[in-house]
């Protein structure tokens, strides 16, 4: 598939993960449209050509605006996507066999860290 589909798919995945949602939860939020976990996986991996209607429904399920979806400043090319995907897979494998409480702790600390970084960026951009 095209680089654009990979970018959109990765952006959808990043937003879903940032919101703490599983693919099943997003599928459920699409309601009667009945997106399956497999279809969402194909979209996130850039392996599915989607319509604008499908994209709109996914944005509604994720509760995001178009400008949030199409902000590709953090992902400039396919190599970035592939490297990021590799890093996420490594992170996943590190946590897979850990106790649930340990995983929750890592998620909480990571979220706090990212919130702090985002606040700093916002603070610096208003100067």
Q: Label the structural class.
A: mainly alpha
Distance between the termini: 41 Å
Q: Report the helical percentage.
A: over 70%
**Average pLDDT:** 85
* Helix run count: 7
> Radius of gyration from the CA trace?
16 Å
Q: Report the biggest beta sheet as strand number plus sense, adding barrel if it closes.
A: none
Give the overall shape, derived from the CA principal axes: globular
- Beta-strand proportion: under 5%
Which ranges are low-confidence, i.e. pLDDT below 50, for 5 or more consecutive residues? Answer: none
InterPro entries: Cro/C1-type_HTH, Lambda_DNA-bd_dom_sf, TransReg_Diox_bact_type
Domain HTH cro/C1-type: 12-69
Keywords: DNA-binding
Protein name: Helix-turn-helix transcriptional regulator
Task: List its traits.
single chain
Textual characterization of the structure:
The mean pLDDT is 85. It contains seven helices and no strands. Helices cover 72% and strands 0% of the residues. The radius of gyration is 16 Å and the shape is globular. Keywords: DNA-binding. It comes from Metasolibacillus meyeri.
Short structural summary:
The protein is mostly helical. It has 7 helices and no strands. It is globular, with a radius of gyration of 16 Å.
């Amino acid at each position: 598939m095209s680089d654009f589909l990979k970018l959109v798919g990765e952006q959808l995945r990043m937003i879903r993960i940032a919101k703490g949602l599983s693919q099943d939860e997003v599928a459920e939020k699409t309601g009667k449209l009945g997106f399956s976990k497999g279809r969402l996986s194909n979209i996130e991996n850039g392996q599915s050509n989607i319509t604008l209607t499908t994209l709109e429904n996914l944005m509604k399920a994720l509760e995001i605006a178009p400008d949030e979806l199409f902000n590709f400043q953090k992902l400039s090319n396919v190599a970035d996507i592939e490297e990021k995907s590799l890093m996420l897979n490594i992170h996943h494998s590190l946590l897979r066999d850990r106790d649930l409480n340990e995983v929750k702790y890592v998620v909480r600390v990571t979220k706090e860290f990212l919130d702090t970084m985002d606040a700093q960026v916002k603070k610096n951009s208003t100067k």
